[in-house]
Amino acid sequence: MQKTSDVTRLLLDWRAGQKNALNDLLPKVQDNLRQLAAGYMRGENSGHTLQPTALVNEAFLRLVDVDITWQNRAHFIAIAANTMRRILVDHARAKRREKRGGDDIQVTLHETRLGEGDQADILELEDVLTKLEAFDQRKSQVIELSFYGGLTYDEIGEVVGISAATVDRELRFAKAWLYRELNGEDNG
Fold it and tell me: Which of 46, 19, 129 is nearest to 81 (CA)?
């Protein structure tokens, strides 16, 4: 827990205006963010131009100027995960505009375990997550924190304000819902 409390302290110091806290924070979270980014990008085509390190750097640059009162490490990772999601979606949209339906970025849904080897176009996934958010915002947030944030059930519970058991239930429902939506299955 030492690492978590160090990160939380640095986030609070950074928010309080201590410039050196940002320099000290980056090495403590960079590996975790790089692992998340690499996981997102594992299923992408080989000619893709965005690399995990570039994704982390871009996310960090966007977070530097954001006006957020950081609560703790889990909160920071959740916001960083959401930022990386937005960057990937923006990148995919730009690529699609360039190529008009060319090679779209693929994201392996390993964290959500929707099925062995399942892949979804990141823009399709974004559309389905947006649909889930309209249907149930908390389930959408829980799946985002799990898939994009890589947070544990306890960390997700802390961010969302629910128990780990409720996180488990929300994730099971959200995964089933996403699987059905991504595979065009209809219950009616």
Answer: 129
